[in-house]
Structure formats: C-alpha cells, structure tokens
DNA sequence: CTACTTTGACAAGATCCTTGAATAAAACGG
DNA sequence: CCGTTTTATTCAAGGATCTTGTCAAAGTAG
C-alpha cells in the first residue's frame, strides 16, 4: 500500500506527474487541454509545463502548419521530449546477443546483433554484452552512461534481484548474479528479467495483446516456455519460477513427439530435434504433404492439451503462440483454437506473435522504460 | 491508471486517508505516532484527527490504566471506530444460507444460518436471503439500511456486474442478475462474487494464507473448484470464469475414482457419490483400514496431478485444500505435498484450510469491507 | 517540591492552487 | 483594410493547507 501524503510540494509533484503522464500518452497538447485533463486550473498547468520545459522533459512544438485552424489565438502546443532519455533492451539468447536502443518515446534508435557460441565462458559473454551495448549506444550517438536504464532478458529462473537461480541452456549461468555482474560492467542502471516474461510484456506493449490484460503466452522453439500476463501485470510467482513448465509429470508438454515421429518416418536417416522436426513438418505441410499437415495438426493439439490445463483455471482473453515455431502460423493456430473451442467454457482467442525474433529485446526495452518511468515520475502511479 | 491531482483539498484528503489507514492498521495511536507515520506535522495530524473524530470515524480512548507509562505528559490516544459501520457477508450454498454481520473492524456481531432446499424457486430463495440478512442485522441491533455494504457469495460463474452467467448446482440460477435482484430487495449496497474467489479471499485475510500473495486454493467437496490469489489480488479472468475447471479434458480432476472404487469394493450395496465415498474412505482410514488409507492417498495424488498443471506455471507460495474434504487433513495433504515436492522446481506448501464452513461467508464479509473502504477512503489506495 | 520530558495549542510564514480581470494574437466579415 | 469575435496568455488577489517555532500543560523521577 503505497500511501502518499505530506506537504504542499507533494501536491505539486502530484500535478506535475499527472501532466507529464498526459503528455506521454498523446502527441501534442495545449495548456487548456492539459489543464482540463489534469483537473487543474490553467495558470497551474502553465507553471508546471514551464518547470517541465526547464527540466527538459517537455518541448514546445513550434511548427505552425496545421490544418485544423481554430478561430482564436493559436495555443502553444507541447509534447513529451522523447529524446530526454534513452534506454537499451538486451536479449541474451543461447547463441545470440541483441541490443536495441530506444528513446523514452519508445522509438528505436539503434539495433545491434551478434552471434555468440553457446559454450562461450561466462566472463567473455558478459564482456560481449557490455561491448555490444556500447556499440549500439554509439550508433545512436550516446555513451552508455547516458542510458537511463538497461533492461536485460535471459533464459532461466531469474529472481527479483536479478540473480539467475537456474538455467538449463547456458553453461555457467546458474547461480550467476547477472544484475551485479552487468552493473559492475555498465555505468547505467540495469534491470534483469526472465525472457518469457519479457516476451509477454512485449506482446502487451506493441504486439498482439495490446489492450488485453489476461494473456497466456506460449513460447515454442527448442523448448516450451510460458509467460503469463494476469490483470495487466506480468506474473512472476513466489519463487520467480512462473512459467517453468519443464518438469511437468504428464505428457502434456512432450508435444514434439508427433512431428518427430513424422520426421523419422519420412527421412529416417536425418536425426532432427523437436524444433527441427516441427519446422521440417511445417515446410512439407505447406508444400502439400497431407501426412505432414496431420502431424503438425497433432502437434498443435498436443500443445493445446498442455495449454488447456492453464487456460481453464486462468480464463485468459488470449493465447499467443510465440517463438520460432510461430512461423507455422495457421497450421499451428487452427488446431489449437479448435481444442480451446472444444474444451473451454469461454475459449480465448489463439493468435501467433507478430513481433518475431525481436520480441524479447522489445520486452527488455519496455522493462527498461518502466524503470526509467519510476525515475521520471516522482510518485508511484 | 488512477491519477490523482487537483487543488489543496486533494492534499487534505490524501493526508486524511493516510491517517485513517494507519489507524485501521493498529490498535491505538497517539498524535505524535500518527504524524510520524503519515509523514505530516503534528498540527496537521491533530486537525485531521479532529475532523475524523467529528465525522465519527475515529474515537478517543480515554481509559488511562496502562502499564507502559512514558515520562512526559500522557498523550491522547485514538483508534478507528469499528462501530462506525457494519457489513454483512452472505453465503448462498446449494442447500444452506449463511449471513455474518461484522463491524468495520472485522469483529463478528451476528451469525445466522438456515437450510434451504436445493429446489427452492428462485424468488423464494431471494426472499429467504433478504429475510435472513434482516434477522442477522437485527441480532446485531441494526436495520438493513444501516449496513454499509452486503457481500454475497454464490456458486457459478459470476461476472463483474453481479450476474450469474452460469450455474450448474442451483436450478434457475443461470442468467440471474443476482446483483440487481438483491439490490431491489435490500436497502443497502450489494456486491456479488463467486464463492471460490471468496474462499481464497478469506484464507488471505484470516486463514492459512495470511501474508501469502500467490496462492492456489483447491475446493474439494461434491465438486472440485479452484480459487487463485495472484500477486495479492484475487484473479477473476477475462470472462470471470477463472477457476472453472469442470470441463477439463484429461483425467486430472476425476480424482474421485479411487475412493469410489474403494467404496464399491467394500460396500457394493451402498451407492456413494464422490464426496461421500471420500468421506467414507477417510473414516475407514482413520479407523486403521490400510486399503482405505491407500485409496485416500491415491485420491490425494490424483488431486495433486491436477494441481500440478496449475502450480507449475503459476509458482504459488502455498496450496490450500478447502471444502468439506479438508477434514481429511493430513491424510490428504501428505500425498499432495509429496507429489508437489516430486514434480515442482519450487514446491509450494500444501495446507488444509482452517476456516471450515464459514470460509465463504468470511470472504463475503471481506468483499463487503473492501467495498465499504472504497466509500470510507475518498481516494484510491 | 523541583527539574525534566513529552504532549497540546496557537501564531506566523510559506507553498500551491483558484478565480477573475486585463491583455495579446489570430481568424472572420464587411 | 479594419473592427469584431474568439481563444490564449498573463497578472493580481484570495483561500486552503502545511510547516516551523514558541509557550503552556501534564505527567514522572529524584
């Protein structure tokens, strides 16, 4: 219960925050609009905007070529100064690094990517991350120290302090205090989060889940992962292990069986893992192979069987299929939607992620923006 | 985003709310303590308390026989005036009604209960509810119109407007606008909610889940139901159908099979339903029957199998077994805890509900209190 | 009984907001 | 081209609230 109270300066901060929030939410605003929207008088709004202007959070938009000319004296128009700060979103994958630099308006200013072997020693990986952030920042004309926040997404169980409690994919990652390590290497505030949670964050921000507050995100690639958006907030769980469905006892998540069987039957010589088998089957299905279509369909229904155990208790609005296998598109969504329609009282919509491979980096940017906003606004929302 | 802003009176309300909240949270407080806790000056705290005193929200505690005498002048001590308002919590079960009247401090002032046949026509049931509320209020020396809020819990899918979208147990209940019907019969604000959600609310407030913000509540009686507490808030779901696990496709929730088989084997003549079989088996197990113990154990493990599909993605701190079958106690909890320990990365604690049959009425009281607090505090928390 | 400590009460000063009137800048119509 | 209309800006006066500081009151400790 964050309770606000105090002297008159609190009131000022309250009103200032309100106006800044309004400006963040729209393109341009006049003083009259701001005063009305914030519920304060004009002179108050004016004084606040003047302060924000002086502090660099707001800028005046001078150009005057607008079509919707009003009758009277033209109002000064203001907007949030997106370039008043920048953040970086980082995705540390098993074999790749990606850094995305955005301004506070969420506009992308630079993107860097580089491959990194899965067996890279931990110190080298950390250095590579720091270096790639430096390069991406430089692309955007910034020093790392100028970044308001750096959001980092990685696989594994990541606790609230940014420690990697457990990681199956990256060797040496388990037990790493990623937050501390990166903070030591970067002259900027670092925030670390699990990749699944960032994926669903990204979908909520700019993806398929805009406006949806209850979402189950299914990540399907080499492994199956899950991210949950509940009541508009990303769910962490009591031990930050939300979405870790690797150790399920029943067969619900060993869905790859169907496509692997298919792969084995068609090309016995070729040994394919789960993801490769799925991609192989999807390719053949698109080429018109009926058996492949059925295998993918069974794969989808098997995924749905696992999804149902979560969807029925949670009653989400939407199910999003993300990860590499989201490229299967309708081939995967259709059987999943079918299963949901059959077995749910209120079937959620099943859709594929539209964000693609940048999903987690985008979520990391959002994470960093959230952190930046905690600095931007003096009082909690 | 509930954004607060405005003139100086907002500041006053902010501070007033802060002080009232502090007083709700502790037994007695002096002005100095209040001022420090609320972060305002003494004179401000004094003025606010004076206003609250005048409005009847706060009372001065005059008795002066306290042991912990301080050195200086004795401070006046104030406390929240619990009797400044009262609420009722109502539980409409398949065959019973229960009404609990509490003051705003949560102290129980009256309880009424009465059986009501499951096939009672809807208008009669509604009248019986209204009448029992009237009686319980009278027991507490109150008229219904004096109740600040009435919380109502019932089975079925209950949407945000208090409509019973679907009910399997009560005939004619489906499609009923319970909120509207009861509002028409009661001269007090009514809030309606699903019984599972109230059960978990009650556990969070006064039961086993105090201080736990992520809880899976499993209701085991004639039917299996579920209530979810996520991030300290009760989860409703996009269609208010959270916890409706009746239509699960797999066998996870048909756990009664084990105890029913046992019952059939031991007393083939006696036809028992799921709950009866379970109670029968529990009774025999307590009497020392090894086969019964095993049947109950299998029952527990089967429940756990269903639980796991939810527990693994959600990563709760605690699993609570409620409903009539919670009387099985350790016989049920032990196999469930075993299964959780085996199959979870971070196994939650499994416990039985300690609230018993009053659980849902208590949750309804909490629901009503929440509503009352929205009236009590002028600004959202 | 006196010194000390803590609380209570009150006044002065500061901050912030609001209302209302006067002024400024643009569009419209003759 | 000029006055009227419309809307925005600026300024001053007034009110609500909070804070600091001072002094009186009511106890305890010795």
Automatic annotation (TrEMBL), chains A, B:
InterPro entries: ATPase_NBD, ROK, Tscrpt_reg_IclR_N, WH-like_DNA-bd_sf, WH_DNA-bd_sf. It comes from the Bacteria. Coiled coil: none annotated. Residues 18-59 form the HTH iclR-type domain. SUPFAM superfamilies: Actin-like ATPase domain, Winged helix' DNA-binding domain. Belongs to the ROK (NagC/XylR) family. This is Transcriptional regulator.
